[in-house]
Design brief:
With about 250 residues, the chain is α/β, with parallel strands linked by helices. Helix content is about 45%, strand content about 15%. It contains ten helices and seven strands.
């Protein structure tokens, strides 16, 4: 049996950039074999895998759009075959859109937001539970859902749809944690605040983190690495009595 299969396996969705990439790199340093999920940028996924391997870690890249059910099922089967069943899941993949008021949001925009940010997390968690839960013959595991400070700020005049999707993730974390608490699975969440990552550019505001830093009590945006520290701690056995908790990593905002 290879060393790679002996290590616990963690799937991190949306791991080719930003918070997901930082989580992948740190999880590998802390002894996880990492399944690096990406949607379309194969080069970016391969780059993260190469960084992990060059540091002596173990990782493989897996393409899947978490907004597509068939992609999720295929990805989990591919991970099973090449790495073994996962015991850690970080539901990180998510999108924002351009700043917009609710009355101007198209059905298609909100549908895409909820499909990727909410349904994708539900579907990935379902597949993970089938592999982790002692009810299904698994050995337990840990799920970390990436929410956002937007879930309680609401993001008016900008991203109410995104904020609502993350509010759903907060509730999902609470309910799922209680549902699987006796099955060896811990479920927690992280609410990043204003973090300097590429996601702002995808919403048409590449300077957003720096521009809004004065709204943060610590007067600066956070980094993807700072979020990753909290995520990987929740994944680990160091957080063995922590479940149903969503931690703010927001500089006090």
């Amino acid at each position: 049996m290879s060393t790679q299969k002996i290590l616990p396996v963690a799937l991190i969705t949306g791991a080719s950039r930003g918070i997901g990439a930082a989580c992948a790199l740190l999880a590998a340093k802390q002894g996880w074999a990492v399944a690096v999920n990406y949607t379309s940028n194969a080069d970016a996924g391969s780059k993260i895998v190469a960084q992990i391997k060059s540091a002596g870690g173990h990782a493989q890249a897996f393409q899947a759009d978490v907004g597509v059910k068939a992609d999720i099922i295929r990805m989990f089967k591919e991970i099973d075959s090449s790495m073994g069943p996962i015991s850690g899941l970080v539901n990180n993949a998510g999108i924002v859109d351009v700043a917009c008021r609710v009355e101007d949001m198209s059905w298609e925009r909100v549908d895409r937001m909820m499909r990727i940010n909410v349904l994708g997390s539900f579907a990935c968690a379902a597949q993970a539970i089938k592999r982790m839960s002692t009810l299904h013959g698994g050995k337990g595991g840990s799920i970390v859902n990436i929410s956002s400070a937007a879930s309680h700020l609401g993001s008016p005049n900008q991203y109410v749809d995104y904020a609502a999707s993350k509010g759903a993730i907060d509730t999902f974390t609470i309910g799922l944690s209680k549902e699987v608490a006796t099955e060896g699975i811990r479920v927690n969440g992280i609410r990043p605040g204003l973090i300097a990552t590429e996601i702002h550019a995808s919403g048409g505001q590449p300077d957003r983190a720096q521009r809004l830093a004065n709204q943060v009590p610590m007067q600066r945006p956070g980094t993807a690495d700072e979020v990753a520290q909290a995520v990987v701690w929740l994944l680990s056995d160091a957080a063995s009595y922590v479940t149903g908790t969503t931690m703010n990593v927001s500089g006090g905002r």
